[in-house]
Design goal:
Layout lengths: L3 E5 L4 H12 L3 E6 L2 H13 L7 E5 L10 H4 L4 E4 L12 H22 L6 E5 L14 E2 L8 H8 L4 H24 L4 E7 L1 E3 L17 H7 L12 E4 H13 L1 H4 L3 E4 L2 E2 L2 H12 L31 E2 L2 H7 L6 H12 L4
Parallel strand pairs: 1-2, 1-4, 2-3, 4-5, 5-7, 6-12, 7-10, 8-9
Antiparallel strand pairs: 9-11
Helix pairs in contact: 1-8, 4-6, 5-6, 7-10, 10-12
Length: 349
């Protein structure tokens, strides 16, 4: 049997592609989910992609915040990729509770890894976010792995439920990542510890969203262009990265503990405003029979974005050159991410 890598939150957008990357690297997958049915959908999709069902194990963890939640799941694994985040109900949950749930689940995976990982556990990779890197309100400048959010936690502490959704999410991600680094410093585990931060995701999911209303926020501008609607700007910044690239970096960090230990690794590829997306799709769909009759949003072609889809003057931008240098691989081109995503969305029309 091949060594096994644990992915928490297997049914997530990123987790599905991460499972694919793990299998492609020759390792088996164990994935946790709150409901087995959701995990089995991912397993079935991976089997259809050509991977043996014997290499994919789904484990139910109904509540990731309770003591010992991950003890059984961690046992026997070569690496842990912690992608699960219990903040799905962020719009209905008071900000302090959002932070509590996020940090509790992070503490649980760390405790389980330390107590039950054994000698075979070589690495733990925590999926953080760029939300842990910029202030509230963000500064329109270059950001990289040296930057931290220093305001969101204080806002939640001072304002409580009135802190708002944005502060809640940023505080949850910042507090959770800080917890990871305190754990590494205080416990000095034998396994490596790495945190990965990513901008908004583009790219096709392993399991498409059941309905168009459930399409992830990060990729919604592509759907809006495909459906003929003027795309709404993403919150704070327009930087994106292909979900398959983030999966690749997560697996890279898991399999290279010596190089990745103690590192924060930012993933961000291009600036992708709505007009850039529209122009890419206008060029791609021209003359294609399968796209006949689809009324794409056109906008004002050629305006509002820099050549090469790079940083735009006066905006926050993310410098992810460190990840490229460390892994030796550049990001999937924006054109590829947009086109591959649009082909999935054509099925919703």
């Amino acid at each position: 049997m091949a060594p096994k890598i644990l992915i928490t939150g297997l049914n997530g957008y990123l987790a599905g592609r991460t499972a694919e990357a793990v299998l492609k690297a020759g390792y088996d997958v164990r994935g946790t989910v709150r409901r087995l049915a959701a995990g089995n959908e991912v397993k079935d999709a991976l089997v259809k992609m050509g991977y043996s069902e014997d290499r994919i194990e789904v484990v139910e963890v109904p509540d990731v915040t309770v003591s010992g939640a991950f003890d059984h799941a961690v046992a026997g694994c070569h690496a842990v990729l912690h992608l699960a985040s219990p903040v799905g109900e962020i719009f209905e949950t008071p900000a302090p509770e959002v932070v509590r749930k996020a940090t509790s689940s992070t503490q649980e995976i760390l405790d389980s890894a330390l107590a039950h990982g054994g000698e075979q556990l070589k690495s733990l990779v925590y999926m953080s976010s760029t939300a842990a890197m910029f202030e509230v309100d963000p500064e329109p400048r270059r950001h990289d792995e040296t930057d931290w959010n220093t305001t969101a936690e204080r806002e939640v502490q001072e304002k409580g439920a009135d802190a708002g959704v944005f502060n809640a999410y940023c505080a949850a991600k910042t507090a959770s990542e800080k917890l990871v680094w305190r754990f590494r410093e205080e416990k000095k585990p034998k396994f490596s510890v790495t945190a990965v931060q990513a901008s908004y995701f583009f790219g096709p999911p392993v399991v498409p969203w059941p309905t168009k209303e459930q399409i992830a926020l990060s990729i919604s501008p592509i759907w809006q262009v495909v459906s003929g609607i003027e795309p709404q700007p993403l919150y704070i910044y327009q930087s994106v990265v292909d979900v398959r690239d983030v999966a690749r970096v997560l697996v890279w960090a898991a399999l290279r503990p010596d190089a990745a230990d103690g590192e924060r690794i930012l993933c961000s590829g291009s600036r992708a405003g709505g007009q850039a997306i529209a122009d890419i799709l206008a060029k791609y769909t021209a003359g294609k029979k399968e796209w006949e009759g689809v009324q794409l949003w056109k906008g004002n072609p050629g305006k509002g974005y820099a050549e090469g889809y790079g940083p735009y003057e006066g905006e926050l931008w993310l410098d992810a050159s460190k990840a490229v240098e460390m892994t030796g691989q550049d990001w999937i081109p924006l054109e590829t991410s947009v086109v591959d995503s649009a082909e999935v969305f054509r099925g919703y029309l």
